[in-house]
Design brief:
Length: 295
């Protein structure tokens, strides 16, 4: 997950060098990308055990990405705070324990804290320039397909709905009765795919990204790790923090990112976008969709 105390340069270098690493070294790189806070307080042996490789593999990985050894590689992570991980079932049981003990006040504080921290950590790693370039790709495209399954299906549909108030040719996929790869069957380099998935990564989203790249589409990936397969395969990748005391990943930062990305699209759009939005809402008032104020 994101860690604003860790040098972005190291994590970026790992992502850039990914394809040149051996399969064993990739195991170490994946662990580091997903658990940067562990590196600063862990020995070579501890990292090796966590990544399920031999200690000398960790050292070789560090040297392969330009460091003298593990100690040199670890230096940017020294101030990171070790964070434990819990499985979904463990978190669910923990929530039940809190309820039985009457500690919902603590849960309330933890949920609020996690939501604020996720947004802060997400936007700390995303630049204005990265958002601008992705937004321009969206605006200049022929069609925009926003893909999410599970909880991210509603996030994708919310983004598409908001975009449709002023723009056309936005599609939330998969459509009813269809599959993601079917929905982008006729897409090409003129189109954009916005793909969303967090660990454990949904196979149909990963497969759709692979197909989109083969067809020349511009892929915008939104996920919870730089090591995510849809980030590594994207023209534009955005990492969101999704930690939560709950047993499911948080969507707070994903929604915030999508709303911000859409605002950049509108800012990048031609002037008629304002007139379109005004016409859309004017028509809604004319159709009596909104409840008028009571006397």
């Amino acid at each position: 997950m994101n860690d604003t105390n860790v040098s972005k340069t190291v994590l970026t270098r790992l992502s850039q060098e990914w394809d040149d690493l051996t399969p064993e070294a990739q195991k170490v790189a994946r662990y580091v990308l997903e658990n940067p806070r562990d590196v600063g307080v862990s020995t070579v042996r501890e990292i090796a055990e966590a990544a399920k490789v031999k200690p000398n593999t960790v050292v070789r990985m560090a040297r392969q990405v330009g460091f003298e050894g593990y100690d040199d590689f670890r230096e940017p992570f020294r101030e990171a705070i070790r964070r434990g991980a819990a499985s979904f079932p463990d978190r669910a049981r923990w929530l039940q324990d809190i309820r039985r003990q009457g500690e919902l006040g603590g849960l309330y504080a933890d949920m609020v804290s996690a939501a604020l921290r996720n947004i802060e950590e997400t936007f700390a790693t995303i630049s204005e320039e990265a958002l601008r370039v992705a937004a321009e790709a969206i605006w200049n495209s022929r069609n925009v397909y926003t893909l999410g399954v599970g909880v991210n299906n509603s996030n994708a549909r919310n983004f598409t709905y908001l975009a449709s108030t002023g723009m056309v040719q936005f599609h939330a996929i998969p459509r009813a009765g269809s599959t993601p790869v079917d929905d982008i069957a006729w897409a090409d380099e003129r189109d954009v795919l916005i793909a969303i998935t967090c660990a454990p990564y949904r196979r149909e989203v990963v497969e759709a990204v692979e197909v989109a790249r083969e067809q020349g589409m511009c892929v915008i990936g939104i996920s919870d790790s730089p090591a995510s397969p849809i980030i590594r395969g994207a023209a534009h990748g955005f990492v969101v923090a999704a930690d939560t005391p709950q047993f499911f990943p948080s969507s707070v930062s994903t929604i915030a990112l999508l709303e911000t990305l859409l605002s950049f699209v509108i800012a990048s759009a031609s002037p008629e976008i304002v007139a379109r939005v005004e016409k859309f809402h004017e028509r809604r008032h004319q159709l009596g969709i909104y409840q008028e104020d009571l006397p």
